[in-house]
Specification:
The structure holds two protein chains of two kinds. Chain A is mainly alpha-helical. Chain A folds into two domains: 31-81; 89-283, no CATH class. Chain A has twelve helices and two strands; from the N terminus they run αααααααααβααβα. Chain A has helices spanning 2-25, 33-46, 50-63, 68-81, 90-98, 103-106, 120-143, 155-168, 177-196, 210-234, 238-266, 278-283, and strands spanning 207-209, 274-276. Chain A has a two-stranded antiparallel sheet. In chain A, α2 runs antiparallel to α3 (50-63), α4 runs antiparallel to α8 (155-168) and α10 (210-234) packs antiparallel against α11. By secondary structure, chain B is an alpha+beta fold. Chain B has one domain (3-358): Beta Barrel (Porin). Chain B has helices at 3-25, 46-51, 88-101, 105-113, 201-206; strands at residues 78-86, 119-131, 134-150, 156-174, 181-200, 214-230, 235-242, 245-250, 259-266, 269-270, 273-282, 294-302, 305-312, 315-324, 327-339, 345-358. The longest helix of chain B has 23 residues, at 3-25. Chain B is globular. Classes of the chains: A mainly alpha, B alpha+beta. The interface between A and B is large, with 57 and 49 residues.
Chain lengths: 289, 359
């Protein structure tokens, strides 16, 4: 009887040790080839080998369109190759999300510089130019320290940024950080375009062509709208999102109103589509070039 | 073998089987590429820090508290010890905390984004008293931190931060029927504030609630058993069940699952002392590589200096402490490689310092 109990005890112990050995010998993270591909891609991104990472992950994503994580990593590889890293956005990103608290400040800006003019046309022009510049100042205020935003340095980098944005637009279920990332990449692209395409912000235009101005304002509006939407949607906190949406919609409306105001002068008519604004430029402290 | 002993042995075997089954069913996802500090055996002594859970398989030296309560049964030691330990990364974390409190996190974030390897820090303060077969202790604060940032293009952070306080009591008994068999019980009441997550930096900016501390209070009952195969060479087979929570409140998920540590140790005479060597096996559920469940450790006393070394597949630790009158000083070095996959791995190493009083 005593020997049987001892034998049973030893048998149970032997069985339990065998069970332990069996269940621990099966590795929990048995990797498939797919997982190895993904890990290799992440490793290459980590090492800064962005081109190689793109070569590894692009075919994988073609066969796994639903893999949101890989889509994000691939987008970051393109952005990395364009030398646009999140590090460059850190303080900028914080300020963007907090900008909802400063919403009122954004819109307490420029006063009417031409209140002493009597001529109705001049006042209309003043209102239009003021609206445009107010919008641009609001845009600059909102973006904050514009020069701190990382951006593409050449056309190849622009292509990479565009590819990254395109990838992130391929999944409608992204939330939070992924949307914020897409917004930041779009801002980087906008900055590049502002530096290269939207020339009126680089010089103090003393002769404004309203057709060109309307075209460029429309272009900026088309680039800004998705940025504003992404920024609002990225905010998880419902109250912050609500505040941010309101502030951003005001900015969007302001820009849209500017375009409408410019439209009335676009087709010639009252000023033949062009006007000299040297007086205005001097009054705001600028110089004609 | 008396009936009660056989019954206890059978019960322990069944319990071990159940724990192994439960451990297999509850696969706790370990944080990626950083050490899973939740599973460290709580101790501030540098030699126990080096040994990790291997300390449950062997008698501690004269300056430390033996981990396995069953091994207290035959100890003759009356000691009161107050101990503090920390590492250089602790000061780095304090500087970072100060910067963040001053609303200047950008330099901190930029600095940490440059680290490619985990940042690990462990610091503890504790006081314990042992009177031969029983011991009590209090750990007012145990602070552990580990983090790693990957992919500067779209930073992903794995982080683990915990702050614990603990009250402990343990006792060991020798069986009257068989003096080779001893058993013991350790109880710990632990309050843990922690955060553990893998997240992208931009996700946290968009949703700061992702980094939210959770709290758990738990009462653990931790039995241990030991069988002396040879008292002359102190050859012992040991077993200990840890983190068996009989009460838990707070966060829904338990911080850790229960763990069984098995060991075989021996302490033959060597030079002027005893060289304690041990082979240790653990059922930690966060370890997937079978080879990493085995560890080999050794303790040796060079007069007033107690030293230790411990190693497993991807880990190496070495430490030593000493006593000068009532002052204790200690130093340890640990290195670990964490292999997540063929392409994802990390290495960390750190020095730990300890200082305290012993009476």
């Amino acid at each position: 009887m005593k020997n049987n109990l001892l034998k049973n005890s030893l048998l149970v112990l032997a069985l339990s040790l065998s069970l332990l050995a069996l269940q621990t010998s099966c590795t929990k993270n048995k990797e498939s080839n797919d997982q190895q591909t993904v890990d290799l891609g992440k490793h290459l991104v980590e090492e800064g080998q962005y081109s190689e990472a793109i070569l590894v992950l692009s075919p994988y994503l073609q066969n796994h369109q639903d893999d949101r994580e890989v889509r994000l990593v691939l987008a970051s590889a393109y952005a990395g190759r364009a030398e646009v890293l999140v590090v460059g956005y850190i303080d900028f990103a914080r300020e963007l999300v907090r900008s909802a608290h400063d919403a009122d400040r954004i819109f307490n800006n420029r006063q009417n510089y031409f209140s002493n003019l009597d001529d109705k046309l001049s006042r209309d022009l003043t209102t239009t130019i003021d609206a445009v510049y107010k919008t641009l100042w609001k845009l600059n205020d909102f973006i904050g320290a514009f020069e701190k935003i990382p951006t593409a340095k050449n056309s190849d980098a622009v292509q990479d940024l565009t590819s990254a944005i395109y990838l992130l637009s391929g999944d409608s279920n992204y939330v939070g950080g992924a949307l914020l990332y897409r917004a930041l990449l779009r801002i980087s692209l906008l900055k590049y375009h502002i530096n290269t395409k939207y020339y009126f912000t680089q010089t103090q235009p003393c002769v404004v062509d309203f057709q060109i101005l309307k075209h460029q304002l429309t272009g900026i509006h088309d680039e800004i709208s998705p940025i504003l939407k992404d920024l609002a949607d990225a905010t998880i906190d419902s109250k912050q999102r609500s505040d941010l949406t309101e502030a951003l919609s005001k900015l969007d409306t302001s820009l849209f109103d500017s375009i409408n105001l410019v439209s009335q002068f676009e087709q010639g008519g009252r000023v033949n589509g062009r006007v000299n604004v040297s007086d205005f430029v001097r009054k705001i402290g600028g110089k004609c070039q | 073998m008396p009936v009660i002993m056989r019954t206890l042995f059978l019960a322990f075997s069944i319990l071990t089987s159940l724990v192994s089954l439960v451990a297999a069913a509850q696969s706790t996802a370990a944080p990626k590429l950083i050490p899973n500090l939740f599973y460290d055996y709580p101790s501030s002594d540098v030699n126990n820090l080096v040994l990790g859970r291997t300390c449950t398989t062997v008698h501690a030296g004269p300056l430390a508290l033996t981990c396995n309560p069953a091994l207290l049964a035959d100890e003759e030691k009356k000691t009161l010890r107050v101990n503090f330990s920390l590492d250089p990364n602790f000061f780095k974390l304090m500087d970072a905390r100060q910067s963040i409190n001053n609303s200047e996190p950008e330099p901190v974030i930029n600095e940490w984004l440059k680290y490619k390897e985990p940042l690990v820090s462990q610091s503890t303060s504790e006081i314990w008293f042992q009177n031969n077969w029983w011991a009590v202790g209090v750990t007012p604060v145990r602070f552990e931190y580990a983090s790693i940032v990957r992919n500067p293009s779209y930073p992903e952070i794995s982080a683990l931060l915990l702050k614990e306080s603990e009250v402990m009591g343990k006792a060991g008994f020798t069986s009257k029927e068989n003096s080779n068999f001893s058993f013991g019980l350790q109880t710990r009441y632990v309050t843990t504030d922690y955060v553990q997550n893998t997240f992208s930096l931009l996700d946290v900016i968009a949703n700061p609630s992702l980094v939210e501390f959770q709290q758990q209070k738990a009462l653990y009952l931790e039995p241990g058993a030991a069988y002396h195969l040879n008292k002359e060479t102190e050859t012992i087979v040991t077993a200990m069940l840890s983190n068996l929570a009989v009460y838990r409140s707070g966060s829904a998920q338990p911080v850790t699952g229960s763990i069984v540590d098995l060991g075989f140790s021996t302490a033959p005479a060597f030079a002027k002392g005893r060289l304690k060597t041990t082979t240790h096996f653990t059922t930690r559920e966060d370890i997937s590589n079978f080879s990493e469940r085995w560890r080999i450790g050794a303790l040796y006393d060079f007069g007033p200096v107690q030293s230790s070394v411990d190693t497993t597949l991807h880990y190496f630790g070495i430490g030593a402490n000493t006593r000068v009158d009532s002052l204790t000083l200690g130093l340890a070095y640990r290195y670990q490689e964490i292999v997540h996959s063929d392409w994802e791995n990390s290495q960390w190493s750190t020095w730990s310092f300890e200082m305290g009083l012993i009476f």
